[in-house]
What we know:
This protein is mainly beta. The chain has 2 domains: 3-402, Distorted Sandwich (Beta-galactosidase, Chain A, domain 5); 413-507, Immunoglobulins (Immunoglobulin-like, Sandwich), CATH 2.60.40.10. The protein is built from 4 helices and 34 strands. It has a 16-stranded mixed sheet that branches. A hairpin with a 3-residue loop joins strand 13 and strand 14. The longest helix has 10 residues, at 42-51. The radius of gyration is 24 Å and the shape is globular. The relative contact order is 0.11.
Amino acid sequence: MDRRQFIAGSAATLSILGSGVGIGAADVPSNAPTEQPFDGQTVRRLARQLAQQAYKTPDHTVPAELAKIDYDAYRSIRYRADRALWRGEGLPFEVQFFHRGWIFKDRIEVYVVDNGHARPVAYSRDLFSFDNVQPPPADSNIGFAGFRLHAPINRPDYYDEVGVFLGASYFRAVAKGQVYGMSARGLSIKTADPKGEEFPAFTTFWIEKPAKGTNSIVVHALLDSPSAAAAFRFTIRPGEETIYDSEVALYPRADIAEAGIASGTTMFLYDANDRVGIDDFRPAVHDSDGLAMRSGRDEEIWRPLCNPRELQVSYFGDVNPRGFGLMQRERDFFAYDDLESHFEKRPCLWVEPIGDWGAGSVELVEIPTKEEIHDNIVSFWRPKDTLKAKGEYGFTYRLHWTNQRPNPRHFAEFATTRTGAGPNGVRLFVLEVTGEILKSVDPKTVKTTVTASKGEVQHLVLQPNPETGGLRVSFQLDVKNEPLIELRGQLMTDDKPLTETWLYRWTR
């Protein structure tokens, strides 16, 4: 099983028992009301109560005929589109569901909220077609593994799939013209910890029925894990840019020193900056090619991703960050030349914090991989202070699923980073700088700075690139005997930044 599968399928789900709206459809007794009151504080109350109780490991049991199927067989289990939630009602959204099976053994409970009341979405085998997979008994109540949202973003007469909640606390989205790539995650705990990572899971969802003519839908989610419970509220607006306005109330059961807020995960196999050992017709293979950041000091940062030979963790300390995210900057088809995967259409995911988040760091985790099926890159915000047990913590942020960073500033960008062998054992770096601002700048007035934590930067050259209309920065790095070197570069004019700050970690 690859890391992407493990991440998606290894966390637990929980049905909230009792008299509240958290009663799952399978647990509703025959004499129980089918609708229960729901308001904006319902999920927070449930999360707060849940965190005061000991964590209960849920039952992942599914029939053997569903547990033992492979990826292709699972894909053959299809929700019947004509049974989509709100089909034929003329609403701007529809909902379809995923069956449990394969690695998706966790059960979620789903409610529809309408006029202040929540009613459970009942499971039925008849909602699905099973092709060659043996279906469960007709009277079974196996339940759902996740769901997907549909809306007409590419053409007005067709409901495209625009978002998916499936597996642990992972979810994905696309904007107009995009294909699925990286994922977001509700909460990360102990990522890259040698003692093992914890995988919190969404257990129950409440989907508010949208009004006719609206451009948004609201999804509430209850999250549970051994270390914490949490309530989420997503206001989802698909379109040219798909936006998830996210409100999180987090209630730790135990002290959490390694919490990851607004987490994103993606795949990076190789690019022009590292093709050592690559035997592939494609020039590059990745869902994202860099980490972008706008610090609380208003510094723009670009850190190209890499597929390291050993696990790497990088920390970018900050106070009240203004934004960060894993980006797919290269949008040229011929940069990938892949007719099936279309990496040039994969979304960026930009996190825009709302309000002050205090001190902490943007953390970047890069995990070695030899296959593109693995999600091996993770980024998130890590608060400086430990999240204390029995406390309550709130985070509000906006997730932008987009083709480029929203509200970009007028800085030139480091569009491409290339490396290769230079003379006498040095490493050669070639950086392409592009941007509209360069059209009004005389290259002779540009000051180029590249520094290294160790080793020696040599033969630094800046020259116009007539093929791109931008500038090319090249230099040699004498690595000496160093195993790891941090690089930092920037172009200036009149003592003011012309470009974002370029960061790079070289390792043997």
